[in-house]
Structures are given as structure tokens and as C-alpha cells.
Write a structure and sequence with these properties.
0% strand, 16 helices, mainly alpha, 2 domains
Length: 492
């Protein structure tokens, strides 16, 4: 099947245009976020100097911009494009999708105001009560603006996932079946099989709605406290609610890119995915598990009952099953079907390798015995950057090539330069995260303005790799831009 779609139905074009707007905005945020992270890492070498206060402020903005402003934002926009193509059906209400975009963008701007003008530095996870017990480092108005910005982002997440579910229902597809539960019956009653690529998007939509609502309630309570009203909020309860949302929000990135990987595999090979039933069963398991494992982030809070920690460890192992099923599908599709090694396919292959590394280190993090040694080290930083960069962002770059080619109706502008950008990015990320892994294994402290004593060598080693990451992003974005604009030049 041709990689560039010939489907120009109005609803497909509408979703494609919408997704391009989200993509270009997200890429702009990514460029800013990675530059902030680069400067903070460079500061740890002593070559660049700014105050600890500024460092923690920029770390906070970097984390929220990179994870939410780039990752969640991009994956939400791409989800619209994917499901309209998978279902060959229009969105339920495109006005909701557009409203979500602007609500999200106002939220992002408020986060920038809180950090850049209010000096908010509570970290992107802003664990309670840290924002309110900051030793005078920032004013209370910054707490209000930050929390309100996060709340708006939460509202946007709810709107997007509501729109996804309503689009599925408008197309006449059962939500229960689209969660993978269809596979419990050998043959669907009505003969209709839910497209496998649709399932991760629906699983994520349900999971994020379940996770975001209690988190939004927590944010409202924190907003009230930021106005000076005492709430008597329990810190451990607040932390558990935050991680009730904080872990599933990772799946707001991972699950859509898995769904898009399925869709791209079918487009590239021109055939349905192998292992359909077992894959759907794996996703049905994810529905059950995804919203109950956030407490593995609080193993070190010993006031939680032991049985909770043990259950979190077991269930976290279980959530790896959809990942394993996805990797099995990828390998099987590549090696049993006619596979075209285009730029999207190359990025997808590298993302699959990153997924394996991220998954293995995630299992280490989730193992109570190991977590006691690595919880507050740079090993954790290495793990989530491996997942966010080596897996998810690498996959998103491949999806973006897929989208811009579809949008422009043209092949990649310069495939040789695109490959240079890809390898510069990927090898840079590998070197950067492994420097963190080594520091973490040796006890390097995370969220520290300075390198842990005797570990500055690894910080220095990481700088060339971080430089490669930045260069790789800029080359890739440049090729995107030229791929899109060449179609305009051709038409003229």
C-alpha cells in the first residue's frame, strides 16, 4: 500500500489539517523544552552559571513543557488524525477538538508565566505541600497561576478523550468492544471486528478520563489553598491522588503512539496485523490495570500498607504485557509481510528498540528491592527520558513524517538529510540517558543543581550527546518544514 494516502474525503482532510496544527505547535514547544534541559545540564559542568533558584525554575518549566506541552499535546492531536483514518469516519464535533487546543495553550502560557515571572520552582510534579512551603522562594500568586494552568491542561485532556469516545460511538462501534473485550468471544456476534489500531486510543481515553477527574478535584482544592484558605489537606493522600493521575498520564503518550504504530504497520504492509486476538486481550488487561498502579511511585512512603506496595509491584509487571504484545506484532509484521523501509518505518523500528530498554528499566524501578536503592537517583531520570525520548518521541518523529507526507502529498524532501537527523537524534539520546544511568547506579542524586561529588566526568561526557539531541531535532524539524512547503512551491 502506498504510504501517502489518496483518501481526501472532507473528514480525513479536516482531521489531517487539525493534527498538523497540533504538531507544529508541539514541535515549537519541544525545541524550547529541550534547549532548557540542555542549559540546565550544561550548568552542572560549571561552564555556564546561573543561580540555583533559576536552575530549579527552568527545570520545572522544562519538565512540564517537554512532558505535557510536547508529549501529551502532540499525542492528543495525532489521535484525532489516526482515529478518523482507522474508522474512516468524521470526528464527533470538531469544535470540541479546537476548543481543547486553545484551552491547553492558555494553560501552557500560564505555566510559563508562573515560572518565568513568578519563579515557581516546585518541579513539574509539584508534590504537595512543597508549593506552599517554599521558604519564600516564590509568591503565592505563582502557586495559583501554576495550578490553574495545570487545571486547564486537565480540562483539555478530558475534552480530547471525550471527543475520541464520542467519535467511536458516532461510527457505531461499541466502547466495550473497542477496549479489547471483543476478543473474549471467538467471533463477534454481528460479524464486525473492531480494528486493532483503534483499541489503544480507546483504552487511553477511558483511562485518562478516570484518572483526570480526581486529579482535577485535587487541583481545585489546591487552588482554594493558594488563596489563603486553610484546607488541612493530607500530604500523603494528595501525593497518592497526584500519582493516580501521574502514572496513567504516561500512557497518554505511550498508548496513542502504540495505536499509531499499529495503523502505520497496516498502511505500510497493506495487510491486517498478525496476532489480532491476543493483542486485543492484552489491551483488555491494560484497561483493568492502568489506573491502579500509580502508587509504585510512593514505595518510600512507608506509611502505606505493605500489601499495597506488593500489589503495585505485581500489577506493574502485568502492564508490560500490552507492550510485549505490541513489540511482538511489530516484529511479526516486519518479518512476515512486505515491509517498506521509509522514514516513518525507520523511526518506528528505532522506537521499538527504545521501548524495550525503557520497559526493562521500568521493571527495575517497579521492583521494591531495587527501588530502595535507585528511587532518588539519576537512574529514575534516565528511565523516564528513555521512555519519553528513545521510545515515544522517536515514534512521534516517525508519525510526524507520516503526517507531513500525507498532508503535502509529497515524499520526504531530502531523505539523506532526514537520516542524518534521525541518527544524530537517536545516538545522542542513547549517550545522554546512559550517562544518567551510570550516575544513578553510582548513587548520583536527581533534581540537584550540581553534580553529585566525583561524578562530574559523566556530566561532561553527556554534553556532546545532548548537543547531538538538539542538532537532531533541528534537522528533523527542518526536513518536516521543507516537506510541507515543497508542495506549496510545486503548486505555485
Amino acid at each position: 500500500m502506498e504510504l501517502i494516502s489518496k483518501n481526501n474525503k472532507p473528514h480525513i482532510k479536516e482531521a489531517r489539517d487539525l493534527a498538523m496544527g497540533w504538531l507544529m505547535t508541539g514541535l515549537t514547544i519541544l525545541i524550547i523544552a529541550t534547549l532548557l534541559g540542555y542549559l540546565n545540564r550544561l550548568t552542572q559542568t560549571g561552564v555556564l552559571f546561573y543561580s540555583a533558584k533559576a536552575w530549579y525554575t527552568l527545570m520545572t518549566l522544562h519538565g512540564m513543557a517537554a512532558f505535557v506541552g510536547w508529549g501529551v499535546f502532540i499525542c492528543m492531536g495525532l489521535s484525532f488524525y489516526a482515529i478518523t483514518n482507522i474508522l474512516d469516519a468524521p470526528l464527533h464535533n470538531i469544535k470540541i477538538a479546537k476548543a481543547a487546543y486553545w484551552i491547553f495553550m492558555v494553560g501552557v502560557m500560564l505555566l510559563a508565566v508562573a515560572t518565568l515571572f513568578g519563579n515557581f520552582a516546585g518541579s513539574w510534579v509539584f508534590l504537595y505541600p512543597l508549593p506552599f512551603e517554599n521558604g519564600g522562594a516564590w509568591d503565592n500568586w505563582a502557586n495559583f497561576v501554576w495550578i490553574f494552568g495545570v487545571l486547564l491542561a486537565g480540562v483539555a485532556i478530558l475534552l480530547v478523550n471525550y471527543e475520541i469516545l464520542m467519535t467511536v460511538r458516532l461510527a457505531g462501534v461499541s466502547i466495550i468492544a473497542a477496549l479489547g473485550f471483543e476478543a473474549f468471544k471467538e467471533k463477534p456476534k454481528d460479524g464486525y471486528k473492531v480494528p486493532t489500531p483503534l483499541i489503544p486510543f480507546v483504552v487511553n481515553a477511558v483511562g485518562m478520563i478516570i484518572a483526570t477527574i480526581p486529579f482535577a478535584v485535587l487541583l481545585v482544592v489546591l487552588l482554594v489553598e493558594s488563596t489563603g484558605v486553610t484546607t488541612g489537606l493530607d500530604a500523603l493522600a494528595a501525593k497518592n491522588v497526584l500519582w493516580w493521575f501521574g502514572h496513567p498520564v504516561v500512557y497518554a503518550l505511550l498508548f496513542p503512539v502504540a495505536g499509531f504504530m499499529y495503523y502505520m504497520l497496516e498502511r505500510i504492509t497493506g495487510t491486517e496485523l498478525i496476532g489480532e486476538r491476543i493483542t486485543k486481550l492484552a489491551w483488555a488487561l491494560a484497561v483493568i490495570i492502568q489506573n491502579v498502579i500509580g502508587s509504585h511511585h510512593v514505595y518510600q512512603d512507608l506509611v502505606n500498607p505493605l500489601w499495597v506496595h506488593v500489589m503495585m509491584q505485581i500489577l506493574t509487571y502485568g502492564i508490560t504485557i500490552p507492550s510485549l504484545a505490541s513489540l511482538f506484532v511489530f516484529v511479526g509484521q516486519v518479518y512476515t509481510k512486505k515491509f517498506e523501509w521509509s522514514m516513518p518505518a525507520r523511526f518506528m523500528f528505532l522506537a521499538a528498540l527504545g521501548w524495550m530498554l525503557a520497559g526493562m528499566t521500568g521493571v527495575i524501578n517497579a521492583t521494591i528491592l531495587f527501588n530502595g536503592f535507585i528511587h532518588n537517583t539519576l537512574f529514575i531520570v534516565a528511565h523516564f527520558h528513555t521512555m519519553a525520548l528513545l521510545n515515544i518521541s522517536t515514534m512521534v518523529f516517525g508519525i510526524a513524517y507520516f503526517l507531513v507526507m500525507d498532508y503535502s502529498g509529497m515524499p520526504v524532501w531530502n531523505e539523506k538529510l532526514a537520516k542524518i537527523g534521525m541518527w544524530t537524534w537517536y545516538l545522542g539520546v542513547i549517550g545522554a540517558v546512559h550517562a544518567w544511568f551510570m550516575q544513578g547506579i553510582l548513587g548520583g542524586v536527581r533534581r540537584s543543581y550540581v553534580s553529585t561529588p566525583n561524578q562530574n566526568l559523566f556530566t561532561w561526557i553527556s554534553i556532546p550527546f545532548f548537543t547531538m539531541v538538539l542538532i537532531g531535532i533541528y534537522i528533523t524539524v527542518y526536513v518536516y518544514w521543507k516537506t510541507v512547503t515543497q508542495s506549496i512551491d510545486t503548486r505555485e
